[in-house]
Amino acid sequence: MNVQEAMDLLKKKGYKYTDKRQDMLQLFSEESRYLAAKDVLETMQKTYDGMSFDTIYRNLSLFTELGILEATELNGEKRFRFTCAVDEHHHHVICLECGKTKHIHHCPMDDQPVQEAGFDVIGHKFEIYGYCSECRKQPAS
Amino acid sequence: MNVQEAMDLLKKKGYKYTDKRQDMLQLFSEESRYLAAKDVLETMQKTYDGMSFDTIYRNLSLFTELGILEATELNGEKRFRFTCAVDEHHHHVICLECGKTKHIHHCPMDDQPVQEAGFDVIGHKFEIYGYCSECRKQPAS
DNA sequence: TTTCATAATAGTAATAATTCCGATTTAATC
DNA sequence: GATTAAATCGGAATTATTACTATTATGAAA
Protein backbone atom coordinates (compact mmCIF):
# COMPACT_ATOMS: atom_id res chain seq x y z
CA MET A 1 0.00 0.00 0.00
CA ASN A 2 1.28 3.44 -0.95
CA VAL A 3 -0.37 6.83 -1.32
CA GLN A 4 -1.36 6.27 -4.93
CA GLU A 5 -2.85 2.86 -4.26
CA ALA A 6 -4.74 4.26 -1.32
CA MET A 7 -6.15 7.14 -3.37
CA ASP A 8 -7.14 4.71 -6.11
CA LEU A 9 -8.92 2.55 -3.56
CA LEU A 10 -10.82 5.59 -2.29
CA LYS A 11 -11.84 6.47 -5.82
CA LYS A 12 -12.90 2.91 -6.59
CA LYS A 13 -15.09 2.91 -3.50
CA GLY A 14 -16.76 6.14 -4.59
CA TYR A 15 -15.06 8.46 -2.12
CA LYS A 16 -13.91 11.82 -3.29
CA TYR A 17 -10.44 13.07 -3.92
CA THR A 18 -9.36 15.87 -1.61
CA ASP A 19 -5.99 17.47 -1.00
CA LYS A 20 -6.42 16.87 2.69
CA ARG A 21 -6.85 13.14 2.27
CA GLN A 22 -3.86 12.98 0.01
CA ASP A 23 -1.76 14.94 2.50
CA MET A 24 -2.86 12.77 5.40
CA LEU A 25 -1.89 9.67 3.47
CA GLN A 26 1.37 11.27 2.45
CA LEU A 27 2.17 11.96 6.10
CA PHE A 28 1.60 8.34 7.04
CA SER A 29 3.53 7.00 4.09
CA GLU A 30 6.59 8.98 5.14
CA GLU A 31 6.56 7.64 8.69
CA SER A 32 6.74 4.00 9.62
CA ARG A 33 5.34 4.69 13.03
CA TYR A 34 2.10 5.02 14.93
CA LEU A 35 0.71 8.56 15.03
CA ALA A 36 -1.96 9.86 17.36
CA ALA A 37 -4.82 11.92 15.98
CA LYS A 38 -3.34 15.03 17.53
CA ASP A 39 0.00 14.42 15.78
CA VAL A 40 -1.82 14.28 12.47
CA LEU A 41 -3.83 17.37 13.32
CA GLU A 42 -0.73 19.35 14.27
CA THR A 43 1.04 18.53 11.06
CA MET A 44 -1.99 19.14 8.89
CA GLN A 45 -2.70 22.48 10.52
CA LYS A 46 0.65 23.74 9.34
CA THR A 47 -0.65 23.43 5.80
CA TYR A 48 -4.35 23.98 6.31
CA ASP A 49 -5.29 26.74 8.69
CA GLY A 50 -8.43 25.93 10.60
CA MET A 51 -8.32 22.21 9.80
CA SER A 52 -10.92 20.57 12.02
CA PHE A 53 -10.78 17.60 14.36
CA ASP A 54 -13.73 16.14 12.60
CA THR A 55 -11.95 15.82 9.29
CA ILE A 56 -8.98 14.11 10.90
CA TYR A 57 -11.03 11.64 12.89
CA ARG A 58 -13.47 10.91 10.09
CA ASN A 59 -10.68 10.19 7.66
CA LEU A 60 -8.64 8.18 10.13
CA SER A 61 -11.56 5.88 10.73
CA LEU A 62 -12.43 5.72 7.03
CA PHE A 63 -8.85 4.79 6.15
CA THR A 64 -8.83 2.18 8.88
CA GLU A 65 -12.09 0.64 7.66
CA LEU A 66 -10.65 0.39 4.17
CA GLY A 67 -7.49 -1.25 5.47
CA ILE A 68 -5.28 1.65 4.45
CA LEU A 69 -4.27 2.32 8.04
CA GLU A 70 -3.97 -0.02 10.99
CA ALA A 71 -4.76 1.11 14.50
CA THR A 72 -3.67 0.31 18.00
CA GLU A 73 -4.17 1.82 21.41
CA LEU A 74 -1.35 3.24 23.48
CA ASN A 75 -1.66 5.08 26.78
CA GLY A 76 -5.35 5.61 26.31
CA GLU A 77 -5.23 7.08 22.84
CA LYS A 78 -5.70 5.50 19.47
CA ARG A 79 -2.73 5.55 17.16
CA PHE A 80 -2.55 4.80 13.46
CA ARG A 81 0.05 3.76 10.97
CA PHE A 82 0.17 2.93 7.27
CA THR A 83 -0.68 -0.69 6.73
CA CYS A 84 2.53 -2.63 6.28
CA ALA A 85 3.15 -4.26 2.95
CA VAL A 86 5.94 -6.53 4.15
CA ASP A 87 3.99 -9.73 4.51
CA GLU A 88 0.59 -11.19 5.20
CA HIS A 89 0.45 -11.05 8.93
CA HIS A 90 2.90 -9.89 11.54
CA HIS A 91 3.30 -7.93 14.74
CA HIS A 92 5.28 -4.95 15.98
CA VAL A 93 7.83 -3.75 18.44
CA ILE A 94 6.61 -0.25 19.31
CA CYS A 95 8.40 2.71 20.86
CA LEU A 96 6.16 4.05 23.62
CA GLU A 97 7.52 7.53 23.11
CA CYS A 98 7.46 8.19 19.37
CA GLY A 99 5.42 5.25 18.08
CA LYS A 100 8.20 4.00 15.81
CA THR A 101 7.85 0.32 14.91
CA LYS A 102 9.83 -2.69 13.87
CA HIS A 103 8.32 -5.83 12.48
CA ILE A 104 8.19 -9.15 14.23
CA HIS A 105 8.15 -11.74 11.50
CA HIS A 106 6.44 -14.28 13.63
CA CYS A 107 2.97 -14.73 15.02
CA PRO A 108 2.42 -16.70 18.23
CA MET A 109 -0.95 -17.87 16.90
CA ASP A 110 0.86 -19.83 14.20
CA ASP A 111 2.66 -21.90 16.83
CA GLN A 112 -0.18 -22.56 19.15
CA PRO A 113 -3.53 -21.59 17.70
CA VAL A 114 -5.82 -21.03 20.63
CA GLN A 115 -8.99 -23.07 20.69
CA GLU A 116 -10.64 -22.23 23.95
CA ALA A 117 -13.76 -24.25 24.47
CA GLY A 118 -16.79 -22.08 23.97
CA PHE A 119 -14.84 -19.04 22.85
CA ASP A 120 -15.35 -17.52 19.43
CA VAL A 121 -11.92 -16.11 18.73
CA ILE A 122 -12.11 -13.07 16.49
CA GLY A 123 -8.72 -11.47 16.89
CA HIS A 124 -5.51 -11.15 18.82
CA LYS A 125 -2.81 -8.69 19.68
CA PHE A 126 0.87 -9.28 20.19
CA GLU A 127 2.89 -6.15 20.78
CA ILE A 128 6.25 -5.51 22.35
CA TYR A 129 6.83 -2.16 24.01
CA GLY A 130 10.00 -0.26 24.71
CA TYR A 131 12.03 2.76 23.76
CA CYS A 132 13.92 3.18 20.52
CA SER A 133 17.50 4.39 20.42
CA GLU A 134 16.46 8.02 19.93
CA CYS A 135 13.91 8.07 22.73
CA ARG A 136 15.84 5.82 25.09
CA LYS A 137 17.81 8.53 26.83
CA GLN A 138 14.89 10.44 28.28
CA PRO A 139 11.79 8.26 28.41
CA ALA A 140 9.11 10.81 29.27
CA SER A 141 7.11 8.68 31.66
CA MET B 1 -3.58 -13.02 45.91
CA ASN B 2 -6.91 -12.90 47.71
CA VAL B 3 -8.82 -10.19 49.55
CA GLN B 4 -7.11 -10.83 52.87
CA GLU B 5 -3.63 -10.83 51.37
CA ALA B 6 -4.43 -7.64 49.52
CA MET B 7 -5.68 -5.91 52.66
CA ASP B 8 -2.58 -7.07 54.54
CA LEU B 9 -0.40 -5.64 51.80
CA LEU B 10 -2.20 -2.32 52.03
CA LYS B 11 -1.71 -2.26 55.80
CA LYS B 12 1.96 -3.17 55.47
CA LYS B 13 2.47 -0.30 53.05
CA GLY B 14 0.84 2.14 55.45
CA TYR B 15 -2.47 2.54 53.66
CA LYS B 16 -5.63 2.65 55.67
CA TYR B 17 -8.31 0.07 56.01
CA THR B 18 -11.66 1.17 54.64
CA ASP B 19 -14.85 -0.74 53.99
CA LYS B 20 -14.88 0.60 50.47
CA ARG B 21 -11.46 -0.80 49.66
CA GLN B 22 -12.41 -4.14 51.12
CA ASP B 23 -15.63 -4.21 49.11
CA MET B 24 -13.85 -3.25 45.91
CA LEU B 25 -11.37 -6.06 46.42
CA GLN B 26 -14.19 -8.44 47.30
CA LEU B 27 -15.90 -7.59 44.03
CA PHE B 28 -12.78 -8.35 42.02
CA SER B 29 -12.06 -11.55 43.91
CA GLU B 30 -15.50 -12.87 43.04
CA GLU B 31 -15.11 -12.26 39.32
CA SER B 32 -12.34 -13.68 37.18
CA ARG B 33 -12.89 -11.06 34.55
CA TYR B 34 -11.89 -7.57 33.55
CA LEU B 35 -14.14 -4.85 34.94
CA ALA B 36 -14.33 -1.26 33.77
CA ALA B 37 -14.31 1.57 36.28
CA LYS B 38 -17.97 2.19 35.62
CA ASP B 39 -18.82 -1.44 36.40
CA VAL B 40 -17.09 -1.09 39.74
CA LEU B 41 -18.80 2.22 40.41
CA GLU B 42 -22.24 0.83 39.61
CA THR B 43 -21.81 -2.10 41.95
CA MET B 44 -20.32 -0.02 44.73
CA GLN B 45 -23.06 2.59 44.51
CA LYS B 46 -25.61 -0.07 45.39
CA THR B 47 -23.96 -0.30 48.79
CA TYR B 48 -22.59 3.20 49.23
CA ASP B 49 -24.89 6.01 48.19
CA GLY B 50 -22.97 8.90 46.70
CA MET B 51 -19.79 6.91 46.13
CA SER B 52 -17.52 9.12 44.05
CA PHE B 53 -15.60 8.48 40.86
CA ASP B 54 -12.51 9.72 42.55
CA THR B 55 -12.48 6.98 45.14
CA ILE B 56 -12.93 4.29 42.49
CA TYR B 57 -10.23 5.59 40.21
CA ARG B 58 -7.80 6.37 42.99
CA ASN B 59 -8.12 2.91 44.44
CA LEU B 60 -8.01 1.16 41.08
CA SER B 61 -4.71 2.81 40.30
CA LEU B 62 -3.37 2.21 43.81
CA PHE B 63 -4.28 -1.47 43.63
CA THR B 64 -2.67 -1.71 40.21
CA GLU B 65 0.54 -0.06 41.42
CA LEU B 66 0.72 -2.55 44.28
CA GLY B 67 0.19 -5.47 41.91
CA ILE B 68 -3.16 -6.40 43.42
CA LEU B 69 -4.95 -5.73 40.17
CA GLU B 70 -3.76 -6.02 36.59
CA ALA B 71 -5.02 -3.67 33.90
CA THR B 72 -5.63 -3.75 30.21
CA GLU B 73 -7.32 -1.52 27.69
CA LEU B 74 -10.37 -2.58 25.74
CA ASN B 75 -12.38 -0.39 23.39
CA GLY B 76 -10.82 2.76 24.72
CA GLU B 77 -11.43 2.10 28.39
CA LYS B 78 -9.20 0.67 31.04
CA ARG B 79 -10.30 -2.56 32.60
CA PHE B 80 -9.03 -4.27 35.71
CA ARG B 81 -8.98 -7.74 37.16
CA PHE B 82 -7.62 -9.44 40.24
CA THR B 83 -4.05 -10.50 39.65
CA CYS B 84 -4.01 -14.16 38.77
CA ALA B 85 -2.27 -16.53 41.14
CA VAL B 86 -2.07 -19.41 38.70
CA ASP B 87 1.53 -19.09 37.66
CA GLU B 88 4.39 -16.68 37.19
CA HIS B 89 3.55 -15.23 33.85
CA HIS B 90 0.80 -15.86 31.39
CA HIS B 91 -1.68 -14.26 29.02
CA HIS B 92 -5.42 -14.19 28.52
CA VAL B 93 -8.22 -14.97 26.18
CA ILE B 94 -10.71 -12.17 26.82
CA CYS B 95 -14.40 -11.85 26.06
CA LEU B 96 -14.93 -8.47 24.44
CA GLU B 97 -18.43 -8.28 25.81
CA CYS B 98 -18.21 -9.22 29.49
CA GLY B 99 -14.45 -9.20 30.06
CA LYS B 100 -14.35 -12.82 31.19
CA THR B 101 -10.93 -14.42 30.81
CA LYS B 102 -9.23 -17.74 30.34
CA HIS B 103 -5.56 -18.32 30.84
CA ILE B 104 -3.07 -19.04 28.11
CA HIS B 105 -0.33 -21.06 29.73
CA HIS B 106 2.21 -20.01 27.22
CA CYS B 107 4.11 -16.84 26.48
CA PRO B 108 5.39 -16.10 22.97
CA MET B 109 8.36 -14.26 24.46
CA ASP B 110 9.60 -17.55 25.90
CA ASP B 111 9.87 -19.05 22.41
CA GLN B 112 11.43 -16.15 20.62
CA PRO B 113 12.62 -13.45 22.96
CA VAL B 114 12.74 -10.26 20.95
CA GLN B 115 16.08 -8.49 20.82
CA GLU B 116 15.56 -5.63 18.47
CA ALA B 117 18.76 -3.70 17.92
CA GLY B 118 18.58 -0.40 19.74
CA PHE B 119 15.27 -1.11 21.42
CA ASP B 120 14.96 -1.21 25.19
CA VAL B 121 12.13 -3.69 25.62
CA ILE B 122 10.14 -2.99 28.76
CA GLY B 123 6.98 -5.00 28.25
CA HIS B 124 4.71 -6.89 25.95
CA LYS B 125 1.09 -7.78 25.45
CA PHE B 126 -0.40 -10.94 24.05
CA GLU B 127 -4.16 -11.08 24.17
CA ILE B 128 -6.73 -13.07 22.28
CA TYR B 129 -10.17 -11.58 21.80
CA GLY B 130 -13.51 -13.14 21.19
CA TYR B 131 -16.88 -13.88 22.69
CA CYS B 132 -17.55 -16.36 25.44
CA SER B 133 -20.37 -18.87 25.23
CA GLU B 134 -22.77 -16.61 27.12
CA CYS B 135 -22.07 -13.51 25.07
CA ARG B 136 -21.65 -15.29 21.74
CA LYS B 137 -25.29 -15.17 20.69
CA GLN B 138 -25.65 -11.41 20.53
CA PRO B 139 -22.27 -9.71 20.31
CA ALA B 140 -23.21 -6.06 20.89
CA SER B 141 -20.85 -4.52 18.37
C1' DT C 1 -18.84 25.12 -18.56
C1' DT C 2 -22.69 25.53 -15.98
C1' DT C 3 -25.68 22.86 -13.04
C1' DC C 4 -26.67 19.66 -9.61
C1' DA C 5 -26.52 16.02 -6.06
C1' DT C 6 -23.83 14.49 -2.74
C1' DA C 7 -19.69 14.03 -0.08
C1' DA C 8 -16.41 16.55 2.69
C1' DT C 9 -15.27 20.10 5.76
C1' DA C 10 -15.25 23.87 9.47
C1' DG C 11 -16.63 25.22 13.59
C1' DT C 12 -18.54 24.18 17.47
C1' DA C 13 -21.17 21.58 20.79
C1' DA C 14 -21.73 17.18 23.08
C1' DT C 15 -20.08 12.89 25.14
C1' DA C 16 -17.33 9.82 27.73
C1' DA C 17 -13.53 8.41 30.41
C1' DT C 18 -10.50 10.07 33.55
C1' DT C 19 -8.09 13.28 36.61
C1' DC C 20 -7.80 17.10 39.68
C1' DC C 21 -8.93 19.94 43.74
C1' DG C 22 -10.73 22.13 47.98
C1' DA C 23 -13.54 20.96 51.83
C1' DT C 24 -14.96 17.43 54.90
C1' DT C 25 -14.74 12.98 57.11
C1' DT C 26 -12.47 9.03 58.89
C1' DA C 27 -8.84 5.62 60.40
C1' DA C 28 -4.91 4.89 63.02
C1' DT C 29 -1.94 6.69 66.62
C1' DC C 30 -0.96 9.11 70.78
C1' DG D 1 -10.80 11.59 73.50
C1' DA D 2 -7.41 14.58 70.67
C1' DT D 3 -4.40 14.71 66.74
C1' DT D 4 -2.75 13.97 62.13
C1' DA D 5 -2.57 12.35 57.77
C1' DA D 6 -5.07 9.63 54.57
C1' DA D 7 -9.46 8.86 52.31
C1' DT D 8 -13.55 10.52 50.52
C1' DC D 9 -17.10 13.59 48.43
C1' DG D 10 -18.83 16.55 45.13
C1' DG D 11 -18.07 18.83 41.45
C1' DA D 12 -15.15 21.07 38.17
C1' DA D 13 -11.45 20.51 34.74
C1' DT D 14 -9.12 17.75 31.19
C1' DT D 15 -8.53 14.96 27.32
C1' DA D 16 -9.77 12.16 23.53
C1' DT D 17 -13.36 11.44 20.65
C1' DT D 18 -17.86 11.87 18.34
C1' DA D 19 -21.90 14.36 16.71
C1' DC D 20 -24.31 18.11 14.36
C1' DT D 21 -25.41 21.95 11.24
C1' DA D 22 -24.30 25.13 7.86
C1' DT D 23 -21.19 25.78 4.21
C1' DT D 24 -18.05 24.41 0.58
C1' DA D 25 -16.11 21.53 -2.91
C1' DT D 26 -15.94 17.33 -5.85
C1' DG D 27 -17.40 14.58 -9.66
C1' DA D 28 -20.80 13.70 -12.98
C1' DA D 29 -24.37 15.07 -16.05
C1' DA D 30 -26.60 18.35 -18.95
UniProtKB/TrEMBL annotation, chains A, B:
GO terms for cellular component: cytoplasm. Binds 1 zinc ion per subunit. Binds 1 Mn(2+) or Fe(2+) ion per subunit. Keywords: Cytoplasm, DNA-binding, Iron, Metal-binding, Repressor, Transcription, Transcription regulation, Zinc. InterPro entries: FUR, Fur_C, WH-like_DNA-bd_sf, WH_DNA-bd_sf. Fe cation binds at H89, H124. Its cofactor is Zn(2+); Mn(2+); Fe(2+). It is found in: Cytoplasm. The keyword Glycoprotein does not apply. One of its GO terms (biological process) is negative regulation of DNA-templated transcription. It holds the Pfam family FUR. GO terms for molecular function: DNA-binding transcription factor activity; transcription cis-regulatory region binding; zinc ion binding. Zn(2+) binds at C95, C98, C132, C135. SUPFAM superfamilies: Winged helix' DNA-binding domain. Belongs to the Fur family. This is Transcriptional repressor. It comes from Alkalicoccus saliphilus.
